[in-house]
């Protein structure tokens, strides 16, 4: 019950503005230590319930107190991290902290529900789960610049997959539903609901242009943040967060456009989703251009990609004009 209360607070709660003056290296040392202690407590708890006889009431009280204290220490150190260090960084630290608490809750649940004859497979898996969650602390980004690099790289991976999938489906003459619909079973192929017409394909090639521009945008912004991104001043940290926030909207917008591209194609739905994606991309480019990650040397690609987005969007508008 106490662990669940900590979890609820972590999920809803806003950390305070932390300790002043805040020192990032000290925070990481403390967080690393609390994760390590939690990992050790999980091992102790699991071993105590790995074979009969059951621990005494006194031992149980001591064990649960130690587990609770370890988890409270993890949450407390997370709360030191002030907003000013960057919301992208803080979200990643919060996710990692939440995972440790969830792991400990699962382990406790497993022990409460397991028969005592022997160490169950489930208990072993749950213990390993806590260890893994605690080890994550060493892979966390150490400042907001690294956090935003990691967030952008994740977005880029998802968009790359979506572009490849769509390219694969659009291969000339290929049936987009070939893998899920068998002729013999349905017996009514040739239905245009499952094929693309020539007009559809023309429209979709401009949509592919937008999807590829999304990938190029993320690639370029990621490279710029790696090369020029800094997290030394509140302004730089806030600019990085703005970039991560808007970049997060690219992948869902790409997905929505891709879904509307499957037959039967509704050209107006495609146009609407293309316009949404184009607007997100223009915003990403605008935010990048006015931020510190975009010195004059980077302005060329911003202009080029802005032009590419406009060009493809205008083609989509031309192809769908008759539908309006």
From TrEMBL:
Domain Cyclin-D1-binding protein 1-like C-terminal: 182-286
Keyword Transferase listed: no
GO cellular component, one term: nucleus
Keywords attached to this entry: Cell cycle, Cytoplasm, Nucleus
Location, primary (coarse class): cytoplasm
Record has Cytoplasm as a keyword: yes
Domain Cyclin-D1-binding protein 1-like N-terminal intervals: 31-170
Name of the protein in its database record: CCDB1 protein
């Amino acid at each position: 019950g106490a662990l669940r209360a900590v979890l609820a607070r972590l999920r809803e709660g806003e950390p305070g503005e932390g300790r002043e003056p805040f020192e990032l290296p000290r925070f990481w040392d403390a967080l690393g230590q609390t994760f390590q202690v939690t990992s050790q407590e999980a091992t102790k708890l699991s071993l105590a319930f790995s074979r009969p006889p059951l621990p005494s009431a006194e031992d149980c009280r001591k064990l649960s107190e130690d587990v609770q204290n370890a988890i409270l220490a993890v949450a407390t150190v997370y709360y030191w991290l002030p907003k000013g260090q960057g919301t992208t960084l803080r979200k990643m630290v919060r996710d990692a902290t939440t995972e440790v608490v969830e792991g400990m809750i699962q382990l406790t649940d497993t022990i409460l529900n397991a028969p005592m004859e022997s160490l169950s497979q489930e208990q072993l898996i749950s213990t390993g789960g806590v260890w893994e969650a605690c080890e994550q602390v060493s892979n966390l980004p150490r400042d907001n610049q690294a956090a935003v690099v990691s967030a952008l790289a994740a977005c880029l991976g998802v968009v790359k997959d979506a572009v490849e999938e769509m390219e694969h489906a659009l291969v000339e003459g290929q049936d987009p539903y070939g893998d899920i619909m068998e002729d013999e079973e349905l017996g009514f192929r040739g239905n245009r609901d499952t094929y693309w017409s020539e007009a559809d394909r023309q429209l979709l090639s401009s949509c592919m242009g937008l999807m590829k521009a999304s990938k190029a945008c993320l690639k370029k912004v990621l490279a710029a943040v790696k090369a020029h991104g800094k997290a030394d001043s509140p302004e730089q940290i806030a600019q990085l967060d703005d970039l991560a926030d808007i970049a997060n909207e690219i992948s869902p917008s790409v997905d929505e456009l891709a879904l509307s591209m499957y037959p039967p194609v509704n050209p107006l739905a495609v146009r609407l989703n293309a316009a949404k994606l184009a607007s997100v991309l223009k915003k990403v480019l605008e935010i990048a251009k006015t931020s510190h990650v975009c010195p004059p040397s980077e302005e060329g690609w911003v202009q080029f990609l802005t032009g590419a987005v406009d060009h493809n969007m205008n083609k989509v508008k031309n192809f769908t004009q008759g539908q309006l």
